[in-house]
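Protein modeling request. Please complete all fields; requests missing the sequence field cannot be processed.
Requester role: graduate student
Desired output: 3D structure, token encoding
Chains: 1
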Amino acid sequence: MTDNSNTVQAERARSRIAMAWDSDVAHSFRRSPVALLSSTVVLLLVLSAVFAPLIAPHDPFNPATLNLMNGFTPPGEANMFTGDSFLLGTDDQGRDVFSTILYGLRISLFVGFAAVALALVIGVTLGLIAGYVGGLTETIIMRVADVQLTFPAILVAMLIFGIAKGITPPEYRDQMAIWVLILAIGLSDWVQFARVVRGATLVERSKEYVQAARLIGRSSFAIMLRHILPNVLSPVLVIATISLALAIIAEATLSFLGVGAPPTEPSLGTLIRIGQGFLFSGEWWILFFPALTLLALALSVNLLGDWLRDALNPRLR
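Delivered output (317 residues):
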């Protein structure tokens, strides 16, 4: 019996994989050079960040491994004092720029994914409640969203970051800086999720399957979670992909302004801020390579989100 059960489960798994491979989205992905290229770049950068300790030739944040004599070494050239050479050069402290980019990429991606996850949970929850419950609850939620939309997201994030950091005890501020940054970006980006989910929920709640669930006595929470939510996830996935690029840029902007990641855990934005101070003195590589990495990451995620939006749009199939 166990062998037969395993065989049936294996057949079902193969059937699901075959159906996914033959789906319209998979077919569109295979035929889109932009989707293939952007996903390859994103996957490469994510894997580089995840395996940074294995890939990076140096630990840029371990003072014991740094040599100030290696400072300002140009890319690919041997240092005139130590004879050491570095692929992308070094910064003012003798840190390998390639290694700092890999470690900074980890911070940027972690903040981006965590902030989008927070915004998604808040926005989807409030959007479902506003669309399904309606009435005064919907009015309050959507008016709060409208008020927040009148302010630029980066200003909202800076305000939240300043308030959260102000109430954090001074001895924990550097340790909590990344989490405060995630909170600030997440709370500034939930509105788009809420508005889209609320609109989709208004459409779904009047359909027959929702009416049937009400007739058999399902609770409102169960209807929203088990019936409506799976049918509003397609636009949420598109918004989440595009919001990831915006969250990464927002993190870089805040760090560039000096109110983001601490110097002990620099992100790509922090590295760009450091490199900007040496741009006009001739050490261009300290700014150029982190900025190029940020550009490649944000552009690739954005292009992937644009393709996903078109692939999931039934009117374009």
